[in-house]
Amino acid sequence: PTEFEIACCRNSIxxxxxxxxxxxxxxxxxxxxxxxxxxxxTQEFFKWRGVFFPITIGLFNTWAxxxxxxxxxxxxxxxxxxxxxYKSDYxxxxxxxxxxxxxxxxxxxxxxxxxxxxDNVFFTEGLKSDRELEKALEI
Length: 139
Hints:
Blueprint: H1 3-20, E1 24-28, H2 29-36, E2 52-57, E3 60-67, H3 70-75, E4 78-79, E5 85-86, H4 89-104, H5 130-138
Parallel strand pairs: 1-3
Antiparallel strand pairs: 2-3, 4-5
């Protein structure tokens, strides 16, 4: 969707979430993640995939959980030279993410404090350098 289309749907999506009060909002892909953060810098989708984090939508506090968009899974299907499709790495990650979601959803606490999801989140480049270690130790 375009930015205009996303903006047009924001109010109705927020109303639906506030009305249904889900325990977890499953975020399907990078576009949905960026919608959730309303233009804040989200870094990379892969850093959020498979992680529960608190969100506030309107006045409603809940948990969010990122998984790949199903279209990503379909685009990365592997097909043999005989035309038979088989699971890709994305299929296994998608299944693993949903198994984790369903196994942990009942363990999540009900009360979620109001906060900005990117506050107190620190990203490192994953380099084995003293600079990265110093950044982490400063926190």
